[in-house]
Design goal:
Blueprint (H helix, E strand, L loop, with lengths): L11 H9 L17 H17 L8 E2 L1 H8 L3 H13 L3 E4 L3 E4 L4 H25 L2 H19 L3 H18 L3 H21 L9 H12 L3 H17 L12 H5 L5
Length: about 260
């Protein structure tokens, strides 16, 4: 499949928004004239698709027809094609000759490589987070855990998935290293693709109790314990993955979190 090297960086602006604003609502489509304010349109389209993947609304293999994207976002084909090319460069989308764009479908081999890279990346980020965390950071982590707990007991799977990914990105932000944070954002998005493709229905992307144990170690400044728990946590997530594929029947607008046009 068309997944690129793990060292290919995402655009700084899009990655920063994804890591710092994982809980913000998706951008809404506008009635702007085609190609008006193209840089802003690029960001809106990229972020909507990226967040759709991160939140498991856009599953691997989902078609991204150019005419429909043009209509949904009120832009011309030049803008849509530019964004799809960037998403393909970042491993989120696969561009198929004469067939159009689809959300990428990682193979089992790529799945193993991506999880291996993510474990290595999160090991470093957790160590830095333990070293640099502040009391305010810990309060935000506790608030994150409370939100996860509420979503779990409401059986709100979309919120649960969003918060689970957001937890890892929040810890990455505590490391205060934007370069590492940017790479992890890409890896988390690719893991979201994998979960959407392989994980059995009804499972949370991450277990709440495991997150709580990691936060407890960070609060205790126990880097060794936090790293060990994160390693086990990610291995458990990888082991739950199956080879059955999940397919949805929602429209592209619904999967992007946009109103029908």
């Amino acid at each position: 499949m068309g997944i690129v090297s793990l060292t290919d960086a995402m655009s700084t602006k899009a990655a920063r928004k994804a890591a710092a604003g994982a809980e913000e609502p998706l951008p809404q489509a506008t009635s702007a004239a085609p190609d008006a304010d193209a840089p802003d349109a690029d960001t809106r389209i990229y972020q909507a698709i990226f967040d759709g993947v991160l939140n498991h609304r856009l599953t691997p293999g989902t078609k991204l027809p150019e005419p429909e994207l043009c209509t949904l976002f009120g832009v011309g084909r030049a803008v849509v094609r530019r964004v799809l090319e960037k998403l393909a460069h970042d491993g989120i989308v696969a561009l198929r000759p004469n067939k159009g764009a689809v959300i990428a479908e990682p193979t089992p081999e790529e799945t193993s490589q991506i999880f291996e890279a993510r474990r290595a990346m999160e090991r470093v980020l957790v160590e830095l987070a333990v070293e640099r965390v502040t009391p305010d950071d810990l309060r935000e982590l506790r608030r994150q855990l409370a939100d996860e707990h509420d979503a779990m007991h409401r059986f709100d799977q979309p919120s649960w998935a969003r918060l689970a990914s957001g937890f890892h990105l929040r810890i990455a932000a505590l490391a205060r290293n934007p370069v590492l944070q940017r790479y992890l954002t890409e890896l988390v998005s690719r893991c979201s693709l994998i979960v959407g493709l392989y994980e059995p229905p009804g499972h949370a992307p991450c277990e709440h109790d495991e997150h709580a144990a990691i936060v407890a170690c960070i609060e205790a400044r126990d880097a060794v314990g936090a790293v060990a728990l994160m390693e086990a946590h990610l291995r458990e997530l990888e082991q739950r993955i199956e080879t059955s594929r999940m397919q949805g029947e929602k429209s592209l607008a619904q999967m992007l979190g946009l109103p029908q046009r």
